[in-house]
Prior knowledge:
By secondary structure, the protein is mainly α.
Amino acid sequence: MTDYYSLLGIESNATKAEIKRNYRVLATKFHPDKSNDPNSAEKFIAITEAYDVLSNKKSRAKYDFLRWEKLKRQKESADSFTTVVPPFESTRTKRNKSQQKRSIRYHQANSEAKKSLQL
């Protein structure tokens, strides 16, 4: 979703007159017949689309609501916990790890009695 307010260079609480003024300035700057920029046609279409949405009261309210919903979802996703799934371990890997632990305990044992209990 493109930010129409930043595209027209206005604040979200801009009046209809400010929207119209900024649209006219940008439209004359990026009009394909007046500009030498090869991307001016795409910019002009985007600016016109932004003006069409923000100049109409109903479509502006709908756009503001969708924009608010998007920000709300982003905040919720940042606040949520992520589930970490441990990597799959084969049975052979589990056996090898347990054998390594037993071997370490055996070699760290101080007396022969403790070593015989480790077996």
